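User: I'm putting together a small comparison set for a docking exercise, and I want a reference complex before I start. The sequence is below, and the ligand is iron/sulfur cluster. Could you produce the 3D structure with the ligand included, as structure tokens?
Assistant: Of course. I'll restate your input first, then give the structure tokens for the complex.
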Amino acid sequence: MPIFHECQRCTACCRWPGQVRLSETEVTRLAEFKQMSEFDFIQQFTRLTGDRLGLALMDKPNGECIFLEGEACAVQSVKPQQCRDFPNLWNFPGFEKICHALPRDVSPEEYREKIKRATGRDVN
Ligand code: SF4
Ligand code: SF4
């Protein structure tokens, strides 16, 4: 049986050190959502990735994501794919110690449906 991890919106993953990579499409979508030009959005909310090959969301001085407001994501409806995919489509050893997503045994059909709803992706 596949296991689907149900996010509990604890926002722990928005506070971890690391980087949220952005595709060009995501920059466009986020800038539209913020009603800004892409240039202004990039200046205000992004930084270069560690490998300097792309853009990532900026962090606040305390290490939180720039879009974490209190206990919620300020761009929830257009949040980057990397955020949507965690923890079901990518994670790391021991992530369960920090992430509060609840593991559920689901049928293969339910798994596909839940992944589609959470991430927008089709999986086999
Ligand atoms: S964009 Fe939203 S979901 Fe993604 S890390 Fe930032 S606050 Fe969290
Ligand atoms: S994915 Fe995990 S760490 Fe992130 S908000 Fe959901 S439950 Fe919390």
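Residues 35 and 41 are 9 Å apart (CA to CA). Residues 14, 20, 57, 65, 67-68, 73, 75, 79-80, 83 surround iron/sulfur cluster (ligand 1) (CB under 6 Å).
User: Thanks, that's exactly what I needed.
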